[in-house]
UniProtKB/TrEMBL annotation:
Name of the featured protein: Non-structural maintenance of chromosomes element 4
GO cellular component: nucleus; Smc5-Smc6 complex
Species lineage: Eukaryota, Fungi, Dikarya, Basidiomycota, Agaricomycotina
Record note on quaternary structure: Component of the SMC5-SMC6 complex.
Organism: Suillus placidus
Domain Non-structural maintenance of chromosome element 4 C-terminal, chain residue ranges per copy: 19-109
Cell compartment(s), UniProt: Nucleus
Major localization class: nucleus
Keywords assigned: DNA damage, DNA recombination, DNA repair, Nucleus
Stated family: Belongs to the NSE4 family.
Length: 113
């Protein structure tokens, strides 16, 4: 189940090129699965398979590592800092708010039984 979920998230990120973090991980039917999706995503980010960036509007997006690297270089940065860590506060109130703000009606990552 673990490897299958991580592989599935990787496939989605590669297909989408960039995707809003909340649209990717939020399952509007299940807070617990949303938390699990974030957990699985952290392995892909830690392995350098994908990365997190921000749009000009400040929205967090997940992108393929090549796209994130190109974005960093375009901004004049020296590339992705592998030692950089991000913290994400995610509770049920944040989950509900993200569903409403981003109008999430279905889960990009299929619902698990």
């Amino acid at each position: 189940m673990f490897l299958c979920s991580v592989t599935q998230i990787h496939r989605i990120v590669c297909e989408e090129v960039t995707i809003n973090l909340f649209n990717l991980v939020i399952n509007p039917r299940s807070f617990g699965q949303s938390v699990e999706n974030i957990y699985y995503l952290t392995f892909l980010i830690d392995d350098g398979v994908c990365g997190m960036d921000f749009t000009e509007e400040g929205e967090p997006v997940i992108c393929d590592s090549v796209v994130c690297l190109e974005s960093c270089l375009d901004d004049g940065s020296r590339g992705i800092d592998n030692n950089c860590q991000q913290m994400l506060e995610f509770d049920m109130a944040t989950w509900r708010c993200a569903i409403e703000v981003f109008n999430i009606t279905h889960s990009v990552i299929p619902h698990r039984l």
